[in-house]
Amino acid sequence: QVTLVESGGDSVESGGSLRLSCAVFAYKYSTYVWTWFRQAPGKEREGVAAIDSDGKTTYANSVTGRFTISRDNAKNILYLQMYSLKPEDTAMYYCAATPFYTCNDAFRSPSPDFTYWGQGIQVTVSS
Question: 56-63 long-range contacts, Cβ below 8 Å, gap at least 24?
């Protein structure tokens, strides 16, 4: 069983920064693929960033160069550092994990149904 708890969401102005955290309560933490998804009102859920057990990272084109996913194995926390935020980044952000997919699977459309999900956290970027 895996429990994921996100934190760090907020309302910021365009160009601002935020760091999302996802506390992970799990067994065999390091063997999963960990991903941040987001879903804006009226839009499909999309993969934002993913990291696998080897530390390989993959990003959506829309966030490449602005967002960084990382993982602190000692603290069991997944991070999403977001810079140069834009109004189109406004969404509910979810961390998710699965032992069954690869990083690239997170960016399929429609978005795959990962095994474990956090409750989601709101990020709002105003122009």
Answer: 56/103, 57/103, 58/103, 58/104, 58/106, 58/107, 60/107, 62/88, 63/89
pLDDT digits (tens, 9 = 90+) for 46-105: 999 999 989 999 999 999 999 999 999 888 899 999 999 999 999 999 999 988 889 999
Q: What is the DSSP string of 3-14?
A: EEEEE---EEET
Contacts with 112 (C-beta within 8 Å, 6 or more apart), sequence order: 98, 101, 105, 106
Going by C-alpha positions, the residue among 14, 38, 34 that lies closest to residue 78 is 34
Q: Are 44 and 105 in contact (CB under 8 A)?
A: no
